[in-house]
Fold:
Amino acid sequence: VIVRALLGHRLAPIAGVAILVLLLPLLFPSAYYFRIAALVLIFALAALGLNLLMGFAGQVSLGQAGFLGIGAYAVAIGATRFSLPSWLCIVGGAALSGVIALIVGRPILQLKRHYLAVATLGLGLLVAIVLTNEARWTGGPDGILVPHLVLFGWPLRGPQAWYWLAGATFLIGAVLAINLVDSPSGRALQAIHDSEVAARMLGIEVGRHKLTVFVISAIYASVAGSYLALLNGLITPDISGFLRSIELVAMAVLGGMGSVLGSLVGAGILVVLPQAPTILHDYEQIVLGIVVMGCMIFLRQGIVPAIANMAPTIVSAIPAIAKALARIRP
Amino acid sequence: MAEFLQFAFSGLTVGAVYALVALGFTLIYNASDVVNFAQGEFVMLGGMATVFLGLAGAPLPIAALVAVVGTVAIGLALHRFAIEPARGAGPVGLITITIGASIFLRGVAQVIFDKRFHSLPPLVGGDPIHLGGAAILPQSLVVLAGAALLVALLWFLMDRTILGKAVVATAANRLAAHLVGINTRHIVGFSFAVSAAIGAIAGILITPITLTSYDAGTLLALKGFAGAMLGGIGSGLGAVLGGVLLGLLEAFTAGYLSSSYKDAVAFLVILAVLFVMPRGLLGRTKVERV
Structure:
């Protein structure tokens, strides 16, 4: 009973991820693996923010990479041009992203479906264009070097340190996300997802709730962008390009919309696949395309929800399988 | 004045291609509610296949014809093997599938063609035509005429043939169309084929002017989508209008303001239009039923 209660607890998946994050390094043969895992966790954070917006509130954003770029350039410009401490720049970038989302979100979120998609796409593109053209500040298309993060007097370098920081941040983000989903606001968002008109009739302030979740998703993306910049040490305007935004959408959808674990799985697939051996490098995009299409065709709700749905069937089939096996043996 | 004409012509030329891409979006969207992000790849495939068939020794008209037929086959395959099996996956799921398809097609193009930029000899050669002080490439006129012809043909197809009426009926109400005996599956497939053909032809027309490469499709899809939304998705006339407007906006911004901010201004205008007219210029209002 206790086990079932624990498994059923809303934070159970998070505990699972926490254990995974703690144990996984035992399998890592080299620093390279830490780096890839850190990348997965960072992208998972951005995908999670987008998932809150898309999976729970049902609002599509094709410009999420714009906030990734704001976070990334906040640490780059803040540290190099104003010699501010990097951690302050992460916070500042997140605040800036939040404020921009707040200002732009009000008119943009009035739009529906594909119109919202094109408006957010334009927003992301605007950020990318400014980053490319304001070379005095951003270094232009060649990018800009980012100094190391210094936390409590310790310079944070090396993939290992970043793995732990990214892991901890993702877990915090996931707990906050799950708590949001289970709160009255979260239920309001799901009502908006199902039908905006019906939600409004029930007295839900549709505009305010959509705006809140848009701001939250922007902050998640911004923090992820700051981390990416600090981990890589170099940042180019590509970080807020259209392809990045599309990639984030694919991560959220592939893993499973409305699933916190799904964001992690989706990010895992889209970050790890392109790391394939160099012989396969030419075929990377072909494989990636096939994986994305295949997942959506065969696992429509996304990987994690589809597996979760299948699990009871598999579990209930175990006794029958065991019986069959027992019959074969003698 | 000469300057104005020059910008207007280059804007119209690029806008005509955006309009064709936007039309492709609209056709597929109307028939199946799918926003096909692989639309730009049709344009790329049309251009690239013609280039490489030409390099292999095929005369240009034959190369172009084979490229269009090949792209149509790919459009049909996309419908048959990726969209059809995922019926009922929801709009975001379907969009993700077309994004996957676009990554896949880009990957294939990168392997069987190459990663370099390519051009085609212009269909009509010769010196630029001088008109009111502006120099106009003959190929620009070919692009404009080709786009106009395609739009006219499409209008004829949709408005004057039984097949077109079936497409319109499917777009209006798929279930009702099915009930009166229209094979809606075939109609959706047909709209993918027509869309692919339009894309491929647009690619062949514009390659002599703007060059093409394996990744040229992304930007075109983005612009075509924006054009379709500006005009109001679902409206054919809106798609053409939106695409041409987008091209003109870009050309005038690049000419009079700054070429590095041409996309920025174009998108700012789109945002402004959407705030005033949330359904685009010619989009119909739809009431959500509860």
Q: What stands out?
A: The beta strands of chain A are 144-145, 149-151, 154-156, 234-235.
